[in-house]
From TrEMBL:
Name listed for the protein in its UniProt record: RidA family protein
InterPro entries registered for this protein in UniProt: Endoribo_LPSP/chorism_mut-like, RutC-like_sf
SUPFAM superfamilies: YjgF-like
Domain Endoribonuclease L-PSP/chorismate mutase-like: 4-146
Superkingdom field: Bacteria
Organism expressing this protein natively: Alsobacter ponti
Residue stretches spanning the membrane: none
Length: 155
């Protein structure tokens, strides 16, 4: 089954990739690696939903943070497809990096980031299993609650 078919079965629609808002590119290919810049939890309309604004442990619940991380991963896949032409060119998700906008005492960062990790495995199967870092941060662009970056091996 192709990745696109799997996404369709899951009811996932990839949005138009977000344009960079600063001096960087959305993705860089170097040899057989594709590095995707950090993606926010933007919806199909290209905007942050009000529930995805703010900090985990304050305005944002763990469940909402999980859903936001999942949305970030969907946006990562949209950038990967734009860079590669097809997600079937992905041999493996090598690494995800997660940045969680959280109050200093928030300790459930890993559970929030599972939203992105679970999505990668659902979309890519075993090729979606990856190494990962999850970091709590003081702020993110647009006051988004989650940002996710990725590295893929390309076939």
């Amino acid at each position: 089954m192709t990745v696109e078919a799997r996404l369709k079965d899951l009811g996932i629609v990839l949005p138009s990739p977000a344009a960079p808002v600063a001096n960087y590119v959305p993705a860089v290919r170097s040899g057989n690696l594709l590095i995707v810049s950090g993606q926010l939890c933007l919806g199909l309309d290209g905007k942050l939903a009000p529930e995805h604004v703010g900090k985990l442990g304050a305005e944002v619940t763990a469940e909402t943070g999980y859903k936001a991380a999942r949305l970030c991963a969907i946006n990562v896949l949209a950038q990967a497809r734009a860079a590669l032409g097809s997600l079937d060119a992905v041999a493996r998700c090598v690494r995800l990096g997660g940045f969680i906008n959280a109050v200093p005492s928030y300790a459930a960062l890993a559970g929030v980031m599972n939203g992105a990790s679970d999505l990668m495995v659902e979309a890519l199967g075993d090729k979606g299993r990856h190494a990962r870092s999850t970091i709590g941060v003081a702020e993110l662009p647009l006051d988004a609650c989650v940002e996710v970056e990725a590295m893929f091996e390309v076939a």
